Amino acid sequence: MKDPVARTVTRTVTRTYSRQPPLIELRLWRQFIAVAEELHFSRAAQRLNMTQPPLTQAIAQLEAALGLRLFERTKRSVQLTAAGAALLPEAHDLLARASALPAYARASADGEAGRLRLAFVSTVGFDLLPRWVLAFRAQHPKVQLELIEATGDVQLLAFERAEIDAGFILHSPGFAPPGLACQRVAHDPLRLALPEHSALAAKTRLTLKDLLDQPLVIFPRRILPSLYDAIFAMYHAAGQLPSVAQEAIQMQTIVNLVSAGLGIAWVPDSVRQFQRPGVVYRCVSAGSSKGASSGRAPIQMPGCETSLVWSEASSNPVLQRFVAFIGQPLG
Fold first, then answer.
1. Helix (H, G, I), strand (E, B) or coil at 146
2. Candidates 3.20.20.70, 3.30.470.20, 3.40.190.10, 2.170.270.10; correct CATH number of 114-184+306-326?
3. pTM for this one?
4. At residue 292, does pLDDT exceed 50?
């Protein structure tokens, strides 16, 4: 925390600069630093490759603009005032940051520095996202990665408002959000989550027919329409309308509701890493169905995909770096 003198100096510089833009000239701060470190105008002038009178005038100009004395001068000595001593580290910091600006600008243009606002659905957070974030930050330490958990519908709205640069969404295979570039990063079969005390949990093999009458816990259609429709299409192909007992937005909440005995749920295979007591996960086969016996096509058990989506109109160089990074296999 800055001491009171330093805070006073900073406020004074800010107010003065708002009236007198020349105070931001780096030349003045270099001259101040030279005198402050040498405590001798003649040696400071030699260090700056200039004569002493212009240096003396420059320091007087700086003091007049600030409205305070930075040095106590006698015929034999030059000493920093309390305000001058407080200002010295600030001046060093200003010059250091100014010197770093060209390199930072080049890094930003190359996508090696800057900010990426990345949204993600909860299922990515079980495994892939932590590994991606760790590896990307290791490769690009100057990039500020802003993570935002959001369902697919919220992400699409955020894209429209230019509030995010990219997002990981969950969807049924082959689906692509309109107006966005899409790169598939993972494929998951759907697994059945069911209460461990259910009679179905004791079976080693489950078919769709075993589940048709079971109450279903599912996400609202608005947040994941392609997968919602695929699950309903599976039931319809088997000649059954799903009995929806409860809707929930987050997959963790859905699994928790299954644990409470409210019903069964279809979840991506990656959700099995969420080891909630009272819940077991099972594979389900299509088995025989009314659709198959009537000569219609066999029932397809739906799967789901995770994709990185982004706007192709984006000019953020960091985004292009991230898209290329996601396309590489994780070590």
1. strand
2. 3.40.190.10
3. 0.69
4. no
